[in-house]
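[retry 2/3] ABC transporter ATP-binding protein: previous attempt timed out, resubmitting with same input.
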Amino acid sequence: MSAIEIRDLSKSFGPVRAVDGVSFTVESGTITGYLGPNGAGKTTTLRSLLGLVTADSGSALVNGRRYVELDRPLSEVGAVLEATNFHPGRTAYNHLRVLCTAAKLPRARVGEALEQVGLADVAGKRVLGFSMGMRQRLALATALIGDPKVYILDEPANGLDPAGIQWLRGFMRHLAHERGAAVLVSSHVLAEVEQIVDNVVIIAKGRLVRQGTLAELVSNGGAPVIRVRTPKPEALRPALERHGAQVEAVGDVLRVTGLDVEGIGGIALDERILLTEMTQERGDLQQVFLELTGEQTGEGRA
Ligand SMILES: Nc1ncnc2c1ncn2[C@@H]1O[C@H](COP(=O)(O)OP(=O)(O)OP(=O)(O)O)[C@@H](O)[C@H]1O
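[retry 2/3] ABC transporter ATP-binding protein: success.
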């Protein structure tokens, strides 16, 4: 059973088909980036998982069950949704204490969760004076309160400064890779999550356009390019071309497409040509993302 399972999920708001037949899963111990431009349907999908949106058809399950069927929801799934509203007059501590009481969780969890998100020092301060970044951390603390093993985070980096984003990345890694949690994190900015996600699901106009690992996303977006350095480029180049490669010379480096690393290495060995470097160029992920989501201009990005 997958920690998160979305199957054939569809939801319309009047004439707008916000989510249109979307299916994907998130496994324990992994981070999945749910990516797409503004209005793509990300929030609607995540809200369906949390029982806040009733789907027209299909299902959105956490630990094999609908959210309303979970016995102890806060201990099974933690969520950070966009535009979380906190009562401004309440302290950070009291926010979490209310949650703990309602969910019959031990009071000690309040301090632990505040500690985990770095808000222990301001536990007694009213949320009124909190910066956007502090509110995001408090939202994360509410997600953590029941120590769940599934996390649904909608644009959690919003309002965080670069140091905050760096911290958030480390935190998500810790949850998934050290604590074995399943993390589903949405973003409309690929660069925000590309360093940490194991898998990517891309959605545009309500439809799933691509899913897989980051590496698959790049290699499907264009033929991989291998950079090859050799003291004898003039000898290697024709040899590679005889084997069907396209070769471009940039200084003393050959940029090779149409052959993989093993193929190039084998040819060099046969020809007794020394190679001093061979690396696969990283494709331009952002470009692939923009192409897939039809956002060529990048307008609407933060
Ligand atoms: N409650 C609602 N009533 C009417 N339309 C809605 C509602 N919720 C979402 N929509 C519409 O559904 C579409 C998908 O919205 P959704 O918020 O799921 O996208 P998103 O990918 O999360 O975008 P963003 O990054 O801007 O939050 C949009 O066209 C949006 O206007």
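[retry 2/3] ABC transporter ATP-binding protein: The chain has eleven helices and 13 strands.
[retry 2/3] clearing retry counter.
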